[in-house]
Design a protein that fits this description.
The complex is a heterodimer of chains A (about 260) and B (about 525).
Chain A (H helix, E strand, L loop, with lengths): L1 E10 L2 E11 L4 E5 L6 H9 L6 E6 L2 E2 L5 H5 L2 E4 L11 H11 L4 H15 L15 H13 L5 E5 L7 H18 L2 E5 L3 H7 L2 E6 L2 E6 L1 H6 L3 H11 L24
Parallel strand pairs in A: 3-8, 3-9, 6-7, 7-8
Antiparallel strand pairs in A: 1-2, 1-4, 4-5, 9-10
Chain B lengths: L1 H27 L7 E7 L2 H16 L4 E9 L1 H9 L5 E5 H8 L8 H8 L4 E3 L9 E6 H7 L15 E3 L1 H5 L4 H8 L6 E3 L2 H10 L4 E5 L4 H4 L2 E4 L11 E6 H6 L1 H8 L7 H12 L5 H13 L11 H14 L5 H40 L1 H16 L2 H7 L1 H4 L3 H25 L3 H9 L4 H34 L9 H10 L2 H29 L2 H4 L6
Parallel strand pairs in B: 1-2, 6-7, 6-8
Antiparallel strand pairs in B: 3-10, 4-10, 5-8, 5-9
The chains are: A alpha/beta (about 260), B alpha/beta (about 525).
The complex binds adenosine-5'-triphosphate and magnesium ion.
């Protein structure tokens, strides 16, 4: 599980994350929502130990995140970065297996795991031999997810893993992700801009604004909120008319059908 | 493909190692029991000839192995080379010693100079018999017509047009003082380059020019030198300087050099200069001829040979003493100087890479240290190459070692700067991915950062190596050889062909280096980085 306790982060004088306390229980999935620049990616970086909080503490799977423990913690976390982050000088396969090779996995095991993951994210096996520049945007996102899953980490942090994908590819990937979260029983924090995606993939939704958590709860809680900002945020995504329809019965963007547990 | 590059690198390393061995073998060739004597020269015709003459007579003494370290540089460099023992003797002028070494222009008399140099372990021969000083020259016709023989004959002649070198005009001890001493008219004086001034006299557009008294072109243009009858100019008597320890090590050879005192006169030295500069003969052949004439028969470098051998040798040298035409000259330069040049470039660039890349990595890691490192290498880069070359002479002597060090230092900046730039240029997302994966610092550097920066780093190494190809031509100024050797000689002789003989091979080598690095790019930059950017 992931625990943030009164975490604060400043860039210069600007408070980007202010006193956030958030617990994500093991095997739960949380969707992190909020306007651009509200501190979502920063929060993920704090969890990964890429940034050191000015105040408060972060712990992952019972380990306090400090510069000393950061490397160990990072190997417990699969991270899919906002902008893809595949290494252009390595093939898809090399990108996926990089850390495992560094940990001296045997070749058969590497191959088997890569093949298994390709099946899981439905990536064409031939694509594994290609360089990132030779892959489509959707393929690259899948390779990024494979890389995050390679060591089968208990925690997954996904920062807009489906940014800039066309609706069909996006819907397919969303379905695959939902299946993966459920099958592999991961603790997941997923950053997204889409209310539908958040509702579809997250057990719970956390709405952020200016470094604060405005609201945490189910999609239904969010839609019933009296908070002006929350209403504005929800309405902006649903069109001008406030909606009363429960999100759980909606389909994720792109038209994929919602799972029974959404 | 990578294997091919590896093989090429190994082959290159083997070649360099081979060259190094050839170099050291050359140094070790001399039997241990025969002392070695190295005679230096400055970078102008007369110095080359006087040094070659000394080499000839020293060899003829049959005691030592004598070599000529040609055209080491200017006064400061050659004197320092003598002082620290990388050469044993060289020709010099008393006025120059007083002015440039002792900084006391007034004390140019021999006893004073000898007293000043003795504590430094340096001795001075007796004067060779001629002065090479500033003088004023007029056309032979004018001299005859108006009976000009002395400078004082020019006093008050208001109709004379003077064309003087800017340096002579500008120095306070130059023309202004001379005019005051002799009462010369300053009505019609213009600044003019030496070479042009002679032409101008010949065409009749000026009447008087300043000249060096042994200048090759004086006879060629039929000029008359006017005697300095009021002793205005300091004395620039030609002498040989030699190290006291050399005189102990090879007494006969040094004695033979000292015996040259009083054997030369202004006109014959000017004639020798002209034979090289105007007739295109080699220094050695001119020097040998001087000795043959002086000793009235056999002599020169092949002293041990009998008469018939000597005449054959002299015929052969007669045939080959003209400098070759440009085409064959280039091939000769490539053959004789190519390995040396390649060694200078290869070794200095190799070590610049070996040091520059880690230095760049280090500089990129720590901003503060980085600024210092990049700043320091930039400063080193702004030092003129020649100054840098000279700077290392007190530490390493003349020749290959200081040249390698200077080229190495020069080559650092592009490599350090590009390594920093290459690492800085890595997309933050990639940097973050590598960190977030939980890779250690070393793995991140080797597996991620260096490959991603490889294109920029290689470009830096390429720039550095091409700079070294050019820079190595300057190494000849401190006696390190290479393609710069014909260039420096050509500059001194004003011989364009000779300059091209060095410049063209250097340019060809630069092109070759570019080609080799294009190959490196194709094999060392990971394939994924050479693909067209992804369409996302
Ligand atoms: N290294 C940094 N230095 C200074 N300011 C930063 C830094 N990283 C982020 N910020 C600022 O902190 C704020 C939060 O950034 P963050 O990347 O967490 O936003 P976000 O919620 O992920 O936005 P988006 O949805 O656009 O990705 C932004 O205003 C950003 O400009
Ligand atoms: Mg973000």
């Amino acid at each position: 599980m992931v625990i943030l306790d009164g975490v604060e982060k400043r860039f210069g004088v600007r408070l980007v994350v202010s006193a956030i306390t958030l617990t994500v229980p093991a095997r739960a999935s949380i969707a992190l929502l909020g306007p651009s620049g509200c501190g979502k990616s920063t929060l993920l970086r704090l969890i990964l130990g890429l940034l050191v909080p000015d105040r408060g503490r972060v712990s992952v799977a019972g380990t306090l995140v400090t510069p000393d423990t950061a490397t160990r913690v990072r190997r417990q976390i699969g991270y899919v970065i906002q902008d893809g982050g595949l290494f252009p000088h390595l093939t898809a396969r090399e990108n996926v297996t990089l850390l495992a090779r560094h940990l001296r996995w045997e070749k058969p095991r590497l191959e088997a795991r890569a093949a298994e993951l390709a099946g899981l994210v439905r990536l064409d096996a031939a694509a594994l031999g290609r360089y990132p520049a030779e892959l489509s945007g959707g393929e690259r996102q899948r390779v990024g997810i494979m890389r995050a899953l390679m060591l089968d980490p208990p925690v997954l942090l996904l920062d807009e893993p489906m940014g800039a994908l066309d609706p069909m590819v996006r819907a397919r990937l969303q379905r695959d992700l939902k299946r993966i979260f459920a099958e592999l029983e991961k603790t997941v924090i997923l950053v997204t801009h889409s209310l539908d995606e958040a509702a579809y993939l997250g057990d719970e939704v956390v709405l952020m604004r200016d470094g604060h958590i405005v609201q945490r709860g189910t999609m239904r809680d969010l839609e019933r909120s009296d908070d002006a900002f929350t209403r504005e945020f929800v309405d902006a995504q649903r069109g001008t008319q406030p909606s009363t329809q429960p999100a759980a019965q909606r389909e994720p963007s792109g038209g994929a059908s919602a799972g029974p547990d959404a | 493909m990578r294997l091919a590059v590896l093989a090429a690198l190994v082959a290159l390393a083997a070649m360099l190692a081979g060259l190094a061995r050839v170099g050291s073998a050359r140094a070790d060739e001399r039997p241990r029991d025969r002392p070695g004597l190295r005679i230096g020269s400055k970078r102008f015709t007369e110095s080359y000839i006087l040094a070659d003459i000394a080499v000839s007579v020293a060899l003829a003494a049959g005691e030592a192995d004598v070599s000529h370290e040609e055209g080491l540089g200017g006064t400061a460099i050659v004197f320092r080379a003598l002082e620290e023992g990388s050469i044993d003797a060289y020709p010099e002028y008393t006025g120059t010693l007083a002015e440039a070494i002792l900084h006391a222009p007034a004390s140019s008399d021999l006893p004073t100079l000898r007293q000043a140099l003795a504590p430094r372990g340096i001795e001075i021969s007796d004067p060779l018999g001629f002065d090479n000083t500033y003088a004023l020259a007029v056309s032979g016709a004018l001299a005859a017509q108006r009976h000009f023989t002395n400078l004082s004959d020019l006093a008050g002649a208001r109709d004379l047009r003077l064309g003087l070198s800017p340096e002579f005009l500008g120095r306070s001890d130059g023309f202004p003082a001379l005019a005051a001493r002799y009462g010369l008219s300053t009505a019609s004086v213009q600044a003019m380059d030496h070479g042009l001034a002679y032409e101008a006299i010949a065409r009749g557009s000026i009447d008087v020019a300043d000249a060096y008294s042994t200048d090759a072109k004086i006879a060629r243009y039929g000029l008359t030198l006017l005697a300095d009858d009021r002793h205005f100019f300091p004395s620039y008597q030609a002498v040989y300087l030699y190290r006291s320890d050399a005189a102990r090590r090879a007494p006969k050879a040094i004695a033979a050099i000292r015996a040259l005192a009083g054997t030369m006169d202004r006109a014959s030295i000017a004639a020798l200069n002209a034979e090289v500069e105007i007739d295109g003969r080699t220094f050695t052949s001119v020097a040998d001829e001087f000795i043959r004439v002086r000793t009235g028969g056999a002599g020169g470098q092949g002293s041990g040979s009998d008469a018939s051998d000597a005449s054959e040798a002299s015929e052969a040298s007669e045939a080959s003493e003209k400098r070759p035409a440009l085409g064959p000259g280039i091939l000769t330069t490539i053959r004789t100087e190519g390995p040396r040049h390649l060694t200078l470039v290869g070794v200095s660039s190799f070590f610049a890479t070996l040091v520059g890349v880690p230095l760049g990595i280090f500089a990129q890691r720590s901003r503060r240290i980085g600024r210092v490192v990049v700043g320091a290498t930039s400063v080193l880069q702004t030092i003129p190459a020649l100054a840098l070359l000279c700077f290392f002479i007190p530490l390493l002597g003349t020749g290959t070692k200081p040249a390698l060090l200077a080229l190495f230092v020069y080559g650092l900046l592009p490599i350090v700067r590009n390594t920093v730039a290459g690492l800085d240029g890595i997309a933050p997302a990639l940097r973050e991915s590598a960190l977030a994966l939980g890779l250690g610092p070393w793995t991140r550097l080797v597996r991620i950062e260096l490959p991603l920066a490889s294109r920029t780093i290689l470009a830096g190494i390429r720039t550095s190596t091409v700079i070294a190809v050019g820079g190595a031509t300057l190494a000849a100024f401190i006696g390190a050889g290479g393609f710069g050797a014909p260039i420096t000689t050509g500059l001194n002789l004003d011989d364009t062909n000779l300059i091209l003989e060095g410049a063209i091979p250097a340019a060809l080598l630069a092109v070759l280096v570019e080609g080799v690095f294009t190959l490196f790019d194709r094999t060392l930059i990971p394939k994924g980085l050479r693909l067209p950017p992804a369409a996302s």
